[in-house]
Structures are given as structure tokens and as C-alpha cells.
Amino acid sequence: MILYRAITILFDIIELLIFVRIIFSFLRIDPYNSVGRFVYELTEPILSPARELIYKLGINTGMFDFSPIVAILMLNIISVILRNILL
């Protein structure tokens, strides 16, 4: 199905951007340069709800940010649900 394939590609791109953001954080790349800002602006709407979920569950992650892992898990769950609906 074309719609499912398009959604899958979109989710793959979002996951890739999340991994790029993780790498940027390890390399201390400035989030205010053009590439950094692009990646941050595209991933923040996905990572912000994940951060909020971690906070509401009362999980203390210390200095580590587990929101990318939670966001990728949420994307995979949504992808499975959409696959079951569309196929």
C-alpha cells in the first residue's frame, strides 16, 4: 500500500534524524548552526512528548536523556498499529 509505505519512510527519516541528534549531542555540535537547528526543529516535536512521559512517570534518569529511546519505541508502536489498520 502506497500510504503505508510513505508513512514508513517518514518514520524512518524521523528515526534517522533522532540518531543524528544523539550524535550531535555526543560531539557537542552547536544546535544553533543551520544543520543543528534543522535537526533540532524536526526532532523536538517528537522528543518533547517522550520527555514529558518520562517526567510524568516519575523516572529519574539523572544526567542521561532517554527520550530518544522512548520516542523511537513510540514511533515503532505507532508504525505497527498503522500497519495493522492499513494492511
Distance between the termini: 7 Å
Sequence stretches where pLDDT stays below 50 over 5 or more residues: none
Q: Describe the sheet with the most strands.
A: none
What Rg do the Cα atoms give? Answer: 14 Å
User: Can you count the beta strands?
Assistant: 0
- Quote the beta fraction: under 5%
Q: Helix count, per DSSP? A: 3
Summed up, the domain count is 1
The helix/strand order is HHH
Give the helix/strand class: mainly alpha
What is the 3D shape?
flat
- Specify the helix fraction band: over 70%
Mean pLDDT across all amino acids: 91
Structure description:
This protein has 87 residues and is an all-alpha fold. It has one domain (2-86). Helix content is 79%, strand content 0%. It is built from three helices and no strands. The N and C termini lie close together (7 Å). The relative contact order is 0.16.
Q: What's the quick description here?
A:
With about 90 residues, the protein is mainly alpha-helical. The chain has helices at about 1-25, 35-55, 65-85.
Q: How would you summarize the topology of this molecule?
A:
Blueprint: H1 2-27, H2 34-56, H3 67-86
Properties at a glance:
87 residues; mainly alpha; 3 helices
